[in-house]
Automatic annotation (TrEMBL):
Main location: membrane
Alphabetical GO biological process terms: transmembrane transport
Compartment list: Cell membrane
Every ABC transmembrane type-1 domain range: 71-285
Entry GO CC: plasma membrane
Regions that span the bilayer: 12-34, 73-96, 108-128, 158-183, 204-226, 266-288
InterPro entries named in the record: ABC_transporter_permease, MetI-like, MetI-like_sf
Family statement drawn from the similarity comment of this UniProt entry: Belongs to the binding-protein-dependent transport system permease family.
Domain of life: Bacteria
Name this protein carries in UniProt: Carbohydrate ABC transporter membrane protein 1 (CUT1 family)
Length: 297
């Protein structure tokens, strides 16, 4: 009887401790998702009455060529940012994991872009990448006999790679920190054993270091995907989604639907689609990463 009372007490204590966070998660996360799903099947404009219209919003969305472009653009940007931040972040982490006198200063410099507010950074980059008087074009002009004018943010051909470049620049710091922490957990005796066996640096990295930091790779992939798929503030502050809608990501598209066109239910349907896309891509990469971890560990 005392054993049962003890279990009941621990059970009630657990409920007491998880109840506040559970209420917060339900109120501010799960409930809005459920409401978004419900209103996406209506013609609600944010105020007033509404009627149930079924799948009409979703049908109209997938018949909208601009939405399809924004969806594909968002996936492309998200995957590109995840790939580049991981490759560059891991490279810097490997360099700074060495016994360098200036490694602490270099770590600070590389992490600094993540501290700068993205809207402030966007306005600075607009000045740097200006077509006529930007510092970037002036810098490249010094290596040429003619004045160089690259439309970094003024041309549909350049604006998306430019946004990916800036996003990667901002996210390298956190990704590098995760990799540095993962590298600290690589046993030195394994590396020494590989050296004794005659393994080259490349083979030691591929066969010893990389498998040992596999959990860090999973975390950083999620960081890159999360920031890439939901990207809004940088392209909106940098170009407003232009030129000619070339940098209009799905988040910007949803913002226009909901708050500029007052088609709130239409925007909710689009946001639910973005959530599903992000969920599918994230689960796919997590599944692949976990499978890799199981195979190498």
């Amino acid at each position: 009887m005392k054993f049962m009372n003890g279990n009941r007490k621990r059970y009630l204590t657990g409920i007491f401790f998880i109840a506040p966070i559970s209420i917060i998660i339900f109120t501010f996360l799960l409930l809005p998702i459920l409401q978004t799903m419900y209103y996406s099947f209506t013609d609600w404009r944010g105020v007033g009455e509404y009627s149930f219209i079924g799948l009409k919003n979703y049908i109209n969305i997938f018949n909208d060529s601009s939405f399809k472009y924004s969806l594909l653009l968002t996936i492309y940007v998200g995957l590109s940012i995840a790939f580049l931040t991981n490759v560059i972040g891991l490279t810097f982490a490997l360099v700074l994991d060495q016994a360098l006198k200036t490694k602490n200063i270099l770590r600070t410099i590389l992490y600094l872009p993540n501290v700068i507010p993205i809207v402030v950074a966007a306005f600075v980059w607009r000045y740097i990448l200006d077509y006529n008087n930007g510092l970037a074009n002036k810098f490249f002009s010094t290596f040429s006999s003619e004045s160089i004018h690259i439309p970094w943010i003024d041309s549909p051909d350049y604006v998306v790679p430019t946004i990916i470049m800036i996003s990667t620049w901002q996210m390298i710091g956190p990704v590098m920190i995760v990799y540095l922490a993962a590298l600290q957990g690589v046993p030195l005796d394994l590396i020494e054993a590989a050296k004794i066996d005659g393994a080259s640096k490349v083979k030691r990295f591929l066969n010893v270091t990389l498998p040992m930091i596999a959990p860090g790779i999973t975390v950083n992939i999620l960081i890159g995907l999360a920031n890439g798929i939901r990207i809004f503030d940088l392209p909106y502050a940098l170009t407003g989604g232009g030129p000619a809608g070339a940098s209009e990501t799905l988040a910007i598209k949803i913002y226009r639907y909901a708050f500029q066109s007052t088609e709130l239910s239409y925007g909710m349907a689009a946001s639910f689609i973005m959530t599903l896309v992000a969920l599918v891509i994230t689960l796919l990469f997590v599944s692949l990463s976990r499978r890799y971890e199981r195979n190498v560990m």
